[in-house]
Amino acid sequence: MKYSKSEILDACKKMCKNTLMETLDIDFIDVTDDTIVARMPVTPKVHQPDGVLHGGAMVALAESVGSAGAFIFLDSKNINIRGIEISANHVKGVRDGFVYATAQVLHRGRTTQLWHIKITNEEGALVSMVKLTTLTLQK
């Protein structure tokens, strides 16, 4: 990493201002050379009508984390990142606490990137498995 962990996490927090990520209370908590991790609280504002975490909120979390990773791991000064394909399999319901999304880069191309994003609950059990493809656009 060309920047320190704290510099990267601070930049991610600043990116969230006045966005869907702020609305969902997504908090970036860790970064390594090929992963980035964020957490999101599971509260009634992200529930389905029956009181479990909405799948759309998990997909929003996954795309946010994968896109932030692409932005961080590439030359972020001259690019914009767009998610161009996302696929999610939700396997476990969550009613409260936090969910954690760990995005790992599988392909770090100059134009496209492929991300594997694992969403888990506080006990580490798999909640959703997501595949995200991002596109890099020059500013």
From TrEMBL:
GO molecular function, one term: 1,4-dihydroxy-2-naphthoyl-CoA thioesterase activity
Swiss-Prot/TrEMBL keywords: Hydrolase
Cross-referenced PANTHER family: 1,4-DIHYDROXY-2-NAPHTHOYL-COA THIOESTERASE 1 (PTHR43240:SF5)
SUPFAM superfamilies: Thioesterase/thiol ester dehydrase-isomerase
Family recorded in the similarity comment: Belongs to the thioesterase PaaI family.
Location of the Thioesterase domain: 51-127
Keyword hit for Cytoplasm: no
Keyword presence, Hydrolase: yes
Residues making up the signal peptide according to the UniProt record: none
InterPro entries the record matches: HotDog_dom_sf, PAAI_dom, Thioestr_dom
Protein name, entry field: Thioesterase
GO cellular component terms given for this protein: cytosol
